[in-house]
Amino acid sequence: MKLSVSGRAATAAVVAVATVLTGGSLAGAAPASPGPSVLAAPDIPLANVKAHLTQFQSIATANGGNRAHGRTGYRASLDYVKAKLDAAGFTTTIQQFTSSGRTGYNLIADWPGGDPEQVVMAGAHLDSVTSGPGINDNASGSAAVLETALAVSRAGYQPVKHLRFAWWGAEELGLVGSRYYVNSLTAADRARIDGYLNFDMISSTNAGYFVYDDDPAIEQSFKTYFAGLGVPTEIETEGDGRSDHASFKNAGIPVGGLFTGASRVKSAAQATKWGGTAGRAFDSCYHSSCDTTASVNDTALNRNSDAIAHAIWDLSD
Q1: Residue 31: pLDDT above 60?
Q2: 67: which of 6, 73, 80, 221 fits an S-S bond (Cβ 3.0–4.6 Å)?
Q3: Average pLDDT over residues 9-21
Q4: How far is the CA of 134 from the CAs of 3, 74, 181, in angstroms?
């Protein structure tokens, strides 16, 4: 983010009932069917997501301690993600731009099939700040989105809507990569995107469970999932306008997402609700050299990764 589990079967049952009751729709589309696709959303293996984090940490360590825009660690991170997606059958595109005198890159991955007039996107920024490897901010979101995309491939999932995944460059410099992508789209291309789901910092050590309150259908999909786990959520306010969803929202594209907190301090009420330590930042390593794999909150990472998969399956069919 720029400056300025267990219980799946029970969750699926709650999700299915809630979908029937709410009849929610995405970006004004017809109400989604509470069919088997919601129940089929796979469990995202935490071990797989953490393996990606280990790779991002190794890349940072081998490249001056960071994965920042214009640095070798960023390009190595992008190449790692692209190789995984290419092997899984995605059509990948690297989009190049310039910021602060350095070349930056976005990575876009399209899953074959689905209605090209109805696109569901999920994305995360791949760059870190220069002061650290950026494992929570934002290898966590990048790894979870990557593993969800790989789960789509493993399942041979063929949704009604077209699926697109993205990893953004230069977010830490002011949402540069995502804004470049959105600005490159025609008005018709923007209209084809039913929703963009953003994941920036989803494994904060002293985690909270925050849901964006932008598009109602996307918001409800996440809330329904967490309700099935018995995990209360709050509306996300700390990062509002400070991550890549803002590039899409400013262009009139419906957005949503998840967040576990950055430098804001956890209250006593939030500690009672979620555990952790009141009076401490959600992520005390935010934008610091200690934002490493040692500071990952496994429970938050696991829950949020599964929530991403649920929303992708829920909103694309």
Answers
A1: no
A2: 73
A3: 38
A4: 13, 11, 22
Residue 140 to residue 307: CA distance in whole angstroms: 14
Ramachandran class of 26: left when φ > 0, alpha when ψ lies in -120 to 50, beta otherwise: beta
Q: Which residues are catalytic?
A: 171
Other beta carbons within 10 angstroms of residue 288's beta carbon come to: 15
In which band, very low, low, confident or very high, does the pLDDT at 14 lie, cut at 50, 70 and 90? very low
Read off the tokens for 203: 């494994």
Tell me the C-alpha distance between 156 and 58, whole Å: 31
**Confidence (pLDDT) at 1:** 72
Full DSSP string of 143-200: HHHHHHHHHHHHHT---SEEEEEEEES-GGGTSHHHHHHHHHS-HHHHHHEEEEEEE-
Return the minimum-mean-pLDDT range out of 22-36, 199-213, 242-256: 22-36
Query: How many angstroms separate the CA atoms of 128 and 241, rounded?
Result: 18
Segment (H or E) for 153: helix 141-155
Between the alpha carbon of residue 126 and those of residues 53, 77, 196, 253, the distances in Å are 12, 7, 16, 21
Residue found by looking up tokens 């949704």 in the block = 159
Task: Indicate the DSSP class of residue 107.
Answer: E
Q: How far apart are CA 190 and CA 217, in angstroms?
A: 18
Give Cβ neighbours of residue 58 (< 8 Å, ≥ 6 apart): none
Residue 244 has a pLDDT of 98
Q: Report, as an integer, the average pLDDT of 217-246.
A: 97
pTM: 0.90
Residue 228 three-state SS: helix
